[in-house]
Amino acid sequence: MISNTYLDIIELCFDFRKLLQEQKTSSLKRILKPISIDGKFEEAIQRFREHRKIVDKEAQTCHMIEAAETKALVQAHKTLVEVDRKGLKYTTHFGSQH
Predict the structure, then answer these.
(1) Rounded Cα–Cα distance for residues 6 and 14 (Å)
(2) Are the C-beta atoms of 54 and 5 separated by less than 8 Å?
(3) Phi and psi, residue 33, nearest 5°
(4) Which pLDDT score is estimated for 77?
(5) What is the 3-state secondary structure (H, E, C) of 25-94?
(6) Which of these, 12, 1, 10, 17, lies nearest to 39 by C-alpha position?
(7) pLDDT of 11-54, one tens digit each?
(8) Burial classification of residue 50, based on how many CB atoms lie within 10 Å of its CB (0-12 exposed, 13-18 middle, 19 or more buried)
(9) CA 84, CA 76: separation in Å to the nearest integer?
(10) Do 8 and 44 contact (CB within 8 A), yes or no?
(11) Which residues contact 47 (CB under 8 A, 6 or more apart)?
(12) Rounded Cα–Cα distance for residues 82 and 86 (Å)
């Protein structure tokens, strides 16, 4: 989804550049038709807001997955430590019986 955001940014830059070039070519155009950023650029801002919501949701999902994986690794480590500790006790106990 981040790629869509970058694409929108690139398109917006091209549109803005085109608008500036049109204004640059004619002094009369600058006077009679000043740069209007209301319509097209408001739409772009709205698209960026929508992209942000989607990217935030994706990031939240990634954090939840990473947290679950970390929890599973910690639990697996605790289990291995416990088995290892018990294994050492059994070895020690077994060794003392002989």
Answers:
(1) 12
(2) no
(3) -135, 80
(4) 92
(5) HCHHHHHHCCCCCCHHHHHHHHHHHHHHHHHHHHHHHHHHHHHHHHHHHHHHHHHHHHHHHHHHHHHHHH
(6) 12
(7) 888 888 887 777 777 666 666 666 665 577 788 888 888 988 98
(8) middle
(9) 12
(10) yes
(11) 8
(12) 6
What is the length of the chain?
98
Distance CA 16, CA 92 (A): 77
Hey, what amino acid is at 2?
I
Q: Round to whole Å and give the CA distance between 9 and 41.
A: 11
Model pLDDT for residues 40-98, shown as the tens digit of each residue = 778 888 888 898 898 899 999 999 999 999 999 999 999 888 888 877 654 445 555 54
Give backbone dihedrals phi and psi of 36, rounded to 5 degrees, phi first. Answer: -110, 115
